[in-house]
Amino acid sequence: SITVEINEKKLTVPFGTTILEACKQAQIHIPTLCHHEDLCVAGVCRVCVVEVEGMRTLQASCAFPITAPIKIKTTTNAVRKARKHIIDLLISEHYGECYSCFRNNNCELQSLAKEYGVDHYNFGHVTQPRFEVDNSSYSVVRDMDKCVLCKRCVRTCIDLQEVGVLEAIDRGHRTHIGTFLEKPLAEVICINCGQCINRCPTGALRANDPRDEIWAAIDDPTKHVVIQTAPSPRAAIGEEFGQVPGKSFTGELNTALRRIGFDKVFDTNFSADLTIIEEGTELILRLYKALVKKEKVALPQFTSCSPGWVKYLEHFYPEYIDNLSSAKSPQQMFGALIKTFYAEKTGINPANIVSVALMPCSAKKFECNRPEMNSSGYKDVDYGLTTRELAQMIKEAGIFLPEMPQSHFDDPFGEASGAGLIFGATGGVMEAALRSVIEFVTGKRVEDVYANADITPVRGFEGIRYAEIPITEVGPVPKLLQHLVPDWNWLKGATLKIAVCHGTANARKVMEDIKAGGKFSECHFIEFMACPGGCLGGGGQPIPTNEEIRKKRAEAIYNEDKSLPVRKSHENRHVKELYDLFLTDGPCGHKSHKLLHTHYVK
Ligand code: HC1
Predict the structure, then answer these.
(1) Which of 82, 321, 362, 431 could crosslink 455 through cysteines, CB 3.0-4.6 Å?
(2) Euclidean distance between CA atoms 75 and 62, whole angstroms
(3) ipTM score of the complex?
(4) What is the CATH number of domain 277-327+417-596?
(5) How many angstroms is it from 349 CA to the middle of ligand 1?
(6) Keyword annotations for this protein (predicted)?
């Protein structure tokens, strides 16, 4: 370690610590713009400059590793002036008005301008847009006139997600961020994950916002407007109302949604439970075909509920599309059921149902517009709405979410299990599946195998996790599956090999290993989520998001799971009822194949 002096205060830091990190440790505030905790150092904006004794020029603190004892000053006049000039220059090139920008009050450039008293245009001002807004994508909108060239989106796309759609184009004052051949986003290999939006410091990137259409539907008395709410938004939306990360607002959100005019509020966790039954059954069938019938089937089975991951696979590894579970995501299963089962049960014409999905994800907007997603005979889900957009709607309605009384979800989908809820965290789909598969196959209670039904080997934030579940004993086949497999003897003594990975850079590692015939090619089931942390870190979640915040959101989800009376998908009585009343030929039966499964075609 090395002793440094910052503003005459001595501090010992490990070798290689950046000045910015050392200042943070000393609780000295340094303004930043191109810096983001999730990303590698860029050092391009220079907003974080400091004085280092003996050096002729000011140094970017984010890009200066401490390798020798040095004296640093962060509050000198030269530092103040340099920072202010940089912000002045950025503002002069920034087209657009703050009041009409979705990042108003949550914009890092605006905050810096306030902090440094930049309240007029010292270097002139751009009065005409230079770029066309690219709203070709269902998910991500690019407005390059608001870009500050911090390259956080570029580093997110290239390094964090290893997709590589965005890059700096041209040089000097013509530099801008663009796509391959300057094509619209919808025509390049964007996976719609929206991670670039989460890391953009300004309003240059945003999600394709359906609020106006949803308000219009709410105002239309001929429309029956329903909303399903995904597991992750409830664990994060409080942040939009100034609450500390890590607290769920499930009951408050239900009340707020009714007050702003939704006719019914449904829980996506219900259809996550259904997904477990369908996807778990599919896995059992694939294993049965491979191990007993010696048929050629695609293994490992990959989860398919993250639409960013599905798109990633379609773009980069299309030869593995058959490995994707044919089970639709919970969002899409729910959409198909609302316009069929629910419409029949309530006598509402499905043509008059407007189905909204509150999601933490920008790719869900793309997913609901996929041509495969019309199995009800209508567009199964009409609009994907992000956590940020819903928070805005709630504010527009004059509601302060944390003060809402709590209320429940609506029937006939009112019950959901903790297994459905934990889908929102990386490893959650796998844990939910295991809670059911272990009970189905062994006949034992999962609590007798894993304390409190917490399957800890698949939890955590490690980018790639691998686990083996030995099946030492088998029980009777449950009634729900008796038409598919005669017994479990063929699984006795087998070891279920599973893996979990989040973030597409990690997905690439797993896929390359599979291609090379490595350890992951021997897995039976792999959970892939496109976003770091899983859905709770989705591209539609409150900004900022970083590892600390993602961990808090995960805590909120796991704490809520613990508090729920039902924690296994197969114990959800409304799911059982659905198979009794509607999906009468059982999981992976004819009807569920028509409504709840699909086959992705690139
Ligand atoms: Fe997700 Fe899913 S967990 S994909 O992360 O399977 O978006 O939250 O809703 O569909 O349930 C997202 C979250 C979400 C689906 C479920």
Answers:
(1) 431
(2) 16
(3) 0.92
(4) 3.40.950.10
(5) 27
(6) 2Fe-2S, 4Fe-4S, Iron, Iron-sulfur, Membrane, Metal-binding, NAD, Repeat, Translocase
